[in-house]
Amino acid sequence: MATKKFAGPSAYKLQQPGPPEVDFLFTEFLNNVAADVSTKETKEPVVAAVFGLGRAGAIHMATINRNSRIKVKYIVDDRKDKFDEFKKFWAFSDDITFLTPKESEKVYNDKSVNTVFVFTPTTTHHQIVVNSLSNGKDVFCEKPIAETAEETKKCYELAKQKGRTLFAAFMRRFDPAYRDLKNRIRRGDLGHVQIVKGTTRDSPLPPIEYLKTSGGVFFDCLVHDFDMFLWLLGEVPTRVQVSASALMEEIKAINDFDTIATILTFPSGAVAILDNSRYSSYGIDQRMIKVDNQRPSHSTEYLIGQEGVKFNPIYYSFPSRYKLAYQRELEHFLDVIQYGAPIDVNSWQILAVSKVVAAAEKSARTGETVYIDWSKDDIPAEYSYLHSLHHTFNGY
Ligand SMILES: NC(=O)c1ccc[n+]([C@@H]2O[C@H](COP(=O)([O-])OP(=O)(O)OC[C@H]3O[C@@H](n4cnc5c(N)ncnc54)[C@H](O)[C@@H]3O)[C@@H](O)[C@H]2O)c1
């Protein structure tokens, strides 16, 4: 009874607030219930070739295969012995043709193919991207686009020259939690962000064979974290300081690192602090201040026993942690190529992140602080500190 006096009017007498904007899945449900054709895609499906059905390929195929906006015509992979299994496992129709890389000219010469998905090892990206763009196809490519900044730049130039879309798959940008954090930061909810902290510890331990062709931990892993910092803060760092070591002898033997601490300093004074590890035994640890780890089961988060509180495990690895992000990234790419939506992952951002990655690797190897000069780069005004000061102080 003591609290009865606090009861307000019946909820039926109050105006219902409706679903919050961040619950985009509920909005999708409402659209489905309304069955409003004006919200439905009407364009013909894109006709696609998929290169590579390994780890990344399997993640994306789970979405591509049931997406009515995509008609897959070719699958290219160098494991010919797996073609029958692929066909059965994914229930591919008979009109999908399987090719080995040597036969990939068929894809490039087929005018009906307008879209190419690249999920092959990093060393092969550049050639597939160039061949696809040269033959007038839009490209969705797993990161990185190429192994060097110079090649990456040329790929974007080619895309521009051919009037085609080149999309670098930075899936974390499409993760609802990170997107929400970015929106809050850019709206000013947190004021001037002074320090951002990030933790990325990979799970499971990647095979050494994969690491050998990955381009190194900076280009393979930290590239995602650096992209996040630049994207969240809306500025590019001018100072990079890294301390890195290889605790695992197998990683040391291939001249790579597994344990890294990075400090990025931005012109506004903001500082980003990042700790990375190639291996986390307890699942994929991906945190940024205000974005915590996620768990497969949310409603039974912990058990209390005599030994204390036991939490459910966090997601084991990126395919499960970022499942929604991969789906949303694909829909975004289709919106860009089918409806001309503005692309969310721009060429200048990819090139800027590569530059930060290269500076970080240099700092790790030399032990020196590396300063970055952006004066000759194509950084848009809104990412420039002087530009924001100009607006804040009206004529700095
Ligand atoms: N963004 C992410 O979350 C993410 C996650 C994993 C991997 N990746 C990227 O995806 C790419 C692939 O990595 P992975 O782990 O899937 O590798 P993987 O070795 O598991 O798979 C590669 C597949 O490509 C096939 N292949 C090799 N050469 C080919 C060619 N020339 N043409 C067609 N197929 C070919 C292989 O047979 C294999 O099936 C890498 O560039 C990696 O950086 C991104």
TrEMBL record:
Belongs to the Gfo/Idh/MocA family. It comes from Leptidea sinapis. GO terms for molecular function: nucleotide binding; oxidoreductase activity. Gene3D superfamilies: Dihydrodipicolinate Reductase, domain 2 (3.30.360.10), NAD(P)-binding Rossmann-like Domain (3.40.50.720). Residues 49-169 form the Gfo/Idh/MocA-like oxidoreductase N-terminal domain. This is Gfo/Idh/MocA-like oxidoreductase N-terminal domain-containing protein. One of its GO terms (cellular component) is cytoplasm. It holds the Pfam family GFO_IDH_MocA. Keywords: Oxidoreductase. One of its GO terms (biological process) is NADPH regeneration. Residues 178-288 form the GFO/IDH/MocA-like oxidoreductase domain.
